[in-house]
Amino acid sequence: MAWKKLIQIHKEIVKRGEDDFFTLYEETRASRASSIKSFSLNSFSGPWETSIELLNNNNFSTALTANQHEQFFIGGPLFFRDGLDKLTPLIYKEVDLRVKNTNEIVLDPLQSKWFVSPPMVRAILQIDYIDDFDEWLKEKIELLNSNNAVSVDGIINSFLDDFPSLSEIYSFDSNADNWFIFSPPARVSVFNAHLMRDYENLEKNISSSPGGLTIFNKQQKTVKAEMELMPLVQLNQDQEKAVKTLLSKNPLSVITGPPGTGKSQVVVAALLNAWAQGKTVLFASTNNAAVDVIKNRLDEFNAGFPLYVRGGAKARNNIDDVLQQVLMFAQDDEGLNLQDLAAKERILKSEVKELKDLIESKKPQQITELYQSAENAYSECLKEKLKITEQEDHFEKQMKSFFNKNVTVEELDSKAEILNNWTERFKEAYTNFENNNEELKNIESKLLNGKKTANEILESWKIDLKELSDLNWILNSSPDEFKKINNEIESYVNNLLLEEDPGQAMSDIDPKWETKDEVNDSLRRLKKINAAIGQNITNYENRYRKLKAAQNQHEEIIQKCLKAGLKKTIKVDTSYFTDWIKCWLDYQAIPKNFFSKLPFGEVKNLLRKLLALEATFNQEIPMKIWRELGELNDDSRAILAEYIELLEELSEKQNRYLEEVENYEEVLSNYQEFKKDAVEAKILSTEVPTDVDWDAFISVIEANIVQANNATKAFSKISAVIEISKKIKICTNKVFTIRSDQPLVKEWFKTDIGSKYESIINSLDKNCNHDSAGRFKSFYDQKALSPITDSWAELIKIYKDSIPQYEAKTIILNNSEFKKIIQKFPVNDINKPEINSFDDYETFIKFNNEINKLNNEYAEFISSGKNNLASSSQEELSRALSQLKIATEMLEDPAKLEMTELINKIQNTDLEEWPEDELYQGFSGFNETTLKAKLNSKYNEIASLAFEKAKGKWFKKISTNSSLQSSISSLRRKLGSNKNIIPENSFVDFKNVLKAIPIWISTAQATQSIPMMPELFDIVIMDEASQCTMTHAIPLIYRGKSFAAIGDPNQLPAIPSIKREEENAIASSLEYDDYPDHLRHYDNNVYLSSFLNLYQAPKNQILLREHFRSHPLIIGFSNLNIYYEKYKKPLLIKNLGKHVGKDDGVSHVQVSGESIKPSQGGSWINPKEATVVKEVIQELKSNPKNNSLEIGVVTPYRKQADLITDELTKEGLIAGVSIGTAHIYQGQEKDIMIFSTVVSNGIDSNSALWLSKPPNLLNVAMTRARKRLIIVGDMDYCENNFSGDMLGKLAKYCKKIDKLSKISLEQKKLFELLILNGIEPEIEYPIADMHVDFCISTNGQNIVIEVDGEQHNQQQAHDQSRDALLRSLNFKVLRYSARDVRETPNIVIEKILENIK
Q: Does residue 52 sit in helix, strand or coil?
């Protein structure tokens, strides 16, 4: 293998990628960069602010709003070659970009220094030489700062002064927009400066040794790994196998992990076990997000312990902190009893195995489902019994309302029959009376005419009288009173119009003052506050100065203490330190002779006192200092005295500071009192500054004094108007009272003229001035009130005329015929309604009908309803017992015997009450959630013990190794002085340091802190390997003895930064004809290269099959159509109870839109789909349940992402929503994802199939959601035009789920369970003249599954006939009740799978 040529090819690829990174365009359709309008760099240190509207590239603005970029840089001023539109910044810096208040941009520097851009570095090196560009630029920036020349011209001239020939090659335009914000281009991974440095070092070293690259010389075989892992992380069988393979002596490992299968779990377990075994590991990924996932997982174990080093940029790396921690821990000796830990671990492992075996047996699931089903059935049993009781109570109440004694069914029927016979005679008497009484007919006619006239009057007010007597309320009303009130208003209005218009004067009176007295009271209070504040300010300023002085002195001594290694707070009284110092000085002053050292001599007394005082403040001095002091003697106490003096000063300054804080707070409390006084003086609380601001407070007080003075003058001007206004207000209140009391007036107010009157009265009531008075005057003069008052008076007359008619009618109806029939009323114990005359005929007929209805309903309840409910209750009890028996059969003795005995007691009715506590105790131990929680707790305990054991061994290793400690100190110094880059003379130190810190994690592009040494690490692990090019991985692989690639070939591959032709040309220029395919850059990635280099890779790769992340229906499509198709095994979906909301899973919105290809680009949009996506997000955001959930939108096409971003931005919906293509979303996940497919009428087939052939892009889009996936697209079009392709399969899948959601939740649940087991059934499948719920064709069998709802009980014969016909057509029929699917789904699916097998 021509290693040097290989390295040179990839080095050239990195350089070209670097050029792409720094090439910017002023006019571009790309969305990765934008110049900033009229932006100037006011300082080199930042932060800097601008706004989205000042960005010159709208596409970049859209990408920012949609959170489509992760990394940002600021660069400028710009240089270019004449005739070319390519721009390059002279200097650049990485920044953190924040958008606040939807438009403002804040750029915070992530690095302290600026860098010269690599293209400019190369340009300068062609004409001159600089040893250190970083130092050169630092000096130039310091000079510009000192000369106040931070400007575009200043920066450009700094370059041209030292390198004048640059002006002959490049052009500069200081008048243009010279500053750009930019992100890495899509084809170039995160910035490559350190990668270029790696290749430069690799090019020098490769001839000596190819390091770990020899792994790719030939196919590598794997051996079965036999080792015991430390139980630091919970692993399934596949994950455990993967970790063992990684840590074994296999030179190459390939781990294939579909979405959500726990790849990070494997990495964390491998890193922790490698650390425990003392193996060195370099973990890398293509992006910071993936590395941070592992970092955060390791931090759960870390807790301040130096477990790993995070490499990378200064803002992210923790190298110095970790090295310092190791040195500190090296001084401690953690004494651990390893035997005790091992014994505890053995017990816990035994308990874990027992719990794990129980959970994996699926018994807990089934027992819990059966137990809960039994409890549910018993609940239904009680409900049916309760219905009987409720019905009986209902009938009893009805009986009591009709009869004054208890009545049996037979008695009720008899009394109803007798009453019906009498009612017939009563009807006959009433009919005869009505036919033979002319006078009654005349009265009825008059009343009818009166009602007709009244209704004609009331018609315009939408009041319809049923009877004239309904007008009885009108006698209590008076249209004359209404007239009188309005006449009074008219009189007051005339007087008001004679006065000066109060409008301007009233505007000077704040509504908070209603009277002149209130204004005067406020004015008095305000002047008093103003005077008091002036006196308080002097006191405040004195206190504030003293506080700041005390605070500065306190902070100064804190810094001294921290620098000396002491704490920053003291809890012991100052006197102890003062006494110690005095005692120590006395001790030093005494001559040390024979007599002074006697047991009771002065020296011994002082020593005892020193020891006693030291005991009081022992805790205030860190243990590290006590260890450094060692045994206390005269020498060590001399050193201690320096610490005590610092602590004495700290205690004094601390006490003084706290005293000044207390004094200051006392002054602050005065401020709060003034605030209360101000509110009492009618100043709004919102006007008063919340924080102490005396100037602002005084301004508020003075403004309110001016306002109060103006109000006083205004009140004097309009005193007459105020009196008139009060009288008008009294009248308007009377009008409002009439409106609420009188139905007629209330309805009149709803008419046009009434609404106009109401508006005028409201205006007068709220603001009594010439304008409102004039409006009333005009309305009154038009006589607009006459129609209502005239109609009102006429209605009163009509009603008064009807009163004698009603009286005469009552006399006629109460005649002898009525008295005769009523005396023969047959039932004495009935509570009949009051019947005073034939006029009550309708009332009695209604009463009789109600008794007949009661009789019929009660008879039906007794004859059948009660029995049906009792039978239903018994059936539910039988189901409860049946479910309990099945669950009991799954138990082991003695629990099985105990539960059997309990069930027999229930069955034999030996128990008065349902034994809920005993049943709960018997089955709660099998609750799957509880068992899993218990198992996790045991795992955590084991992990904690294992970690403690490993820490113990680690302590022992480093605390006795002085050479190691020396290397750590040396490496810290070298890193600090060499910009976090390890110089070659420290490589030996680094290798030694790996003994203490064997785990290093970094992105593939930021390895500046890791030496370029061959086989430096035992293992190199690359995550997201399918997304990583070999160009990025080669320097990492070189550093390792073995290599592991972790990834998913079914997700998006790495994006190359150059084309195949360019790569071939580079190889040709180096005369490398045998350039191997598996080590190329283009059309290759680390996962693929590793897979091809692994002997019998399909067999020897480790496939992770257990999926933990998403709802089963979300992963279900990829599971069936990608992973099952490829590996012939479905993924095993775990955590089934994780997402159980009724909306969780997959849903789709059919959009028959149109795909459009914008004229200026190669991307597609679907405007109608974008609108629907906006509506879906609007609906999601309107539901408070979704407030805490992450929402994302994914689409195959960049232009569609931009269009959706625009739609959401216009509607103010963009906040909290991430929008991007599948390439942006790889490696990410959200709670809710919306997938806009774009594919519809208008798109060409090649463009449509781009997202499904291969299916990697579609797979990424479909698997980003945890909880809910909403597909917005034209599924009809996809099904009709791509039926055999993945798009057609997706359409069919979505329609099945949509159809099942409409049919029943139980059928949807069963579909979900079948999908989980790698079976996609046909639904509503036509056979002969029938449609069956599910049809499965597998293993040479045709199986029909029917889910029976409640209607099955009514049509059993019909269903049996269907089953017989299906069997005759060679179909096996399985029937399950909807209730069983709902309550015991795991038992149902187990039975189905048994039948399929």
A: helix
Give long-range contacts, CB 8 A cutoff, 24+ apart: 1383-1388: 1383/369, 1383/372, 1383/373, 1383/376, 1384/366, 1384/369, 1384/370, 1384/373, 1384/883, 1385/369, 1385/1309, 1385/1310, 1385/1313, 1386/362, 1386/365, 1386/366, 1386/369, 1387/366, 1387/369, 1387/370, 1387/886, 1388/1310, 1388/1313
pLDDT category of residue 190 using cuts at 50, 70 and 90: very low
Calpha distance 360→250 (Å, rounded): 31
Residue 472 is encoded by which pair of tokens? 């009885």
How far apart are the C-alpha atoms of 813 and 437, rounded to whole Å? Answer: 10
Residues 1396 and 1339 sit within 8 Å (Cβ to Cβ): yes
Closest CA to 1142 of 1006, 1003, 1293, 1306: 1306
Per-residue pLDDT tens digits for 616-671: 888 888 888 887 787 788 888 888 888 888 888 888 988 888 888 888 777 777 77
User: At residue 1342, what are phi and psi to the nearest 5 degrees?
Assistant: -115, 115
Residue 359: how many other CB atoms lie within 10 Å: 17
Residue type, 963: S
CB neighbours of 524 closer than 8 A, spacing ≥ 6? Answer: none
Our CA angle for 92, 98, 100, nearest 5°, is 140
Tally of CB atoms within 10 A around 334? 12
- Measured CA to CA, the distance from residue 1010 to residue 1220 in angstroms comes to 34
By the 8 A CB rule, do 864 and 870 touch?
Answer: no
Poorest-confidence range of 864-868, 959-963, 1085-1089? 959-963
Query: Bridge partners of 499?
Result: none
> CA-CA distance, 199 to 193, in Å (whole number)?
10
First to last CA, the chain: 52
Which residue shows structure tokens 């709208």? Answer: 58
> Coil, strand, or helix at residue 1095?
coil
* CA 948 to each of CA 294, 340, 345, 945: distance values in angstroms, whole numbers, following the listed order: 21, 11, 11, 5
How many angstroms separate the CA atoms of 999 and 593, rounded?
A: 59
CA distance 811 to 806: 9
* Dihedral of alpha carbons 1135, 1137, 1141, 1142, sign: positive
Q: Parallel, antiparallel, or unpaired: how do β-strands 33-35 and 180-182 relate?
A: antiparallel
In angstroms, the CA 874 to CA 629 distance is: 84
13 closest CA partner among 199, 185, 186: 199
Nearest Cα residue to 1237 out of 1192, 1290, 1189, 1280:
1290
CA distance 747 to 473: 14
Rounded distance, CA 45 to CA 372, Å?
65
Quickly tell me which residue has 């593939």 as its tokens. 1004
Q: With CA atoms as reference, report the closest residue to 291 among 903, 889, 1028.
A: 1028
Residue 79 phi, psi dihedral angles, 5° rounding: -125, 155
Interstrand relation of 1145-1150 and 1265-1273 (parallel, antiparallel or unpaired): parallel
In whole angstroms, what is the distance from residue 1088 CA to residue 1022 CA? 12
- Both tokens of residue 300? 């759960």
The contacts of residue 986 (CB under 8 Å, 6+ apart) are 970, 971, 974, 975, 1011
Give me the count of residues in the chain: 1397
Which tens digits make up the pLDDT trace of 954-1007? 887 777 777 777 887 877 776 665 655 666 666 788 888 888 889 999 887 777
What span, in angstroms and rounded, lies between the C-alpha atoms of 456 and 435? 30
Does this model's pTM top 0.70? My answer is no
Q: How far apart are CA 747 and CA 10, in angstroms?
A: 88
Contact 1026, 1047 (CB under 8 A): yes
